[in-house]
């Protein structure tokens, strides 16, 4: 994920600026329902793109040992403050940093993991799979291929690679966004069990599956 872009968004938010995107939202109801109705082999969760840390705080309150990665130094500090510890938190890009292998029973990413070219995002998907324990689960949200037509920030976007667009103005200017069809996702996550791909209430795809 592009550190300068997101760091500016978080710094502006701290100063009272506009709460863009997930900053203006509470926890996704679908995510909460999934966690509350799923049996995990161990209670260890990892957040790809933790932002302000509100998902990790919620999980920690429910007995999970939590960890995560975000490329923004400001997000790292905000999340460490929210959790009361830096333990388990990584300030780096998921496209460049491996996360601990076979360590987590839940790895999730809410509106974050798609902010790269498709080969970068695929590397992140592979990273996620290898970091799950057997029987562990993923919960990922990804943009639908047709969704770009409805996004305010992509009304002037440009195609920068196959399936990847970047806004030409606004807070996410030049930040890659990869979009996916359902068929494409079925192929990408074919190695998982209990794969479920559905439309989220807020648009885009919700992918859940078990290793």
Structural class: alpha/beta
What is the count of β-strands?
10
The CATH superfamily title: Vaccinia Virus protein VP39
User: What overall geometry do the principal axes of the alpha carbons give?
Assistant: globular
The CATH architecture designation is 3-Layer(aba) Sandwich
Mean pLDDT: 88
Largest β-sheet summary: 7 strands, mixed
Poorly predicted segments: none
Describe, in plain words, how this protein is organized in 3D.
By secondary structure, this protein is α/β, with parallel strands linked by helices. It has one domain (3-203): Rossmann fold (3-Layer(aba) Sandwich). It is 28% helix and 25% strand. It is built from 6 helices and 10 strands, in the order H-H-E-H-E-H-E-E-H-E-E-E-E-H-E-E. The protein has helices spanning 3-14, 29-36, 54-60, 73-83, 118-131, 182-188, and strands at residues 44-48, 65-70, 89-91, 104-109, 132-142, 158-161, 164-166, 177-178, 193-199, 205-210. The strands form 2 sheets. It has a 7-stranded mixed beta sheet with strand order 3-2-1-4-5-10-9, with helices on both faces. The chain is globular and about 45 Å long. The mean pLDDT is 88.
């Amino acid at each position: 994920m592009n550190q300068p872009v997101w760091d500016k968004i978080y710094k502006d938010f701290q100063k009272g600026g506009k709460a863009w995107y997930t900053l203006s939202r509470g926890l996704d109801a679908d995510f909460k329902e999934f966690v509350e109705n799923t049996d995990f082999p161990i209670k260890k969760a990892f957040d790809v793109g933790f932002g302000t840390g509100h998902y990790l705080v919620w999980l920690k309150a429910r007995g999970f040992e939590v960890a995560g990665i975000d490329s923004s130094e400001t997000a790292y500090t905000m999340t460490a403050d929210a959790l009361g510890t830096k333990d388990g938190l990584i300030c780096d890009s998921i496209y460049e940093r491996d996360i601990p292998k076979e360590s987590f029973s839940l790895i999730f990413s809410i509106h974050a993991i798609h902010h790269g070219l498709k080969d970068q995002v695929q590397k992140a998907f592979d990273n996620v799979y290898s970091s799950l324990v057997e029987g562990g689960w993923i919960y990922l949200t990804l943009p639908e291929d047709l969704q770009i037509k409805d996004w305010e920030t992509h009304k002037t976007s440009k195609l920068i690679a196959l399936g990847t667009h970047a806004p030409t103005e606004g807070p996410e200017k030049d930040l890659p966004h990869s979009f996916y069809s359902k068929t494409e996702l079925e192929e990408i996550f074919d190695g998982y069990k209990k794969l479920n791909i559905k439309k989220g209430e807020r648009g885009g795809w919700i992918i859940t599956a078990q290793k």
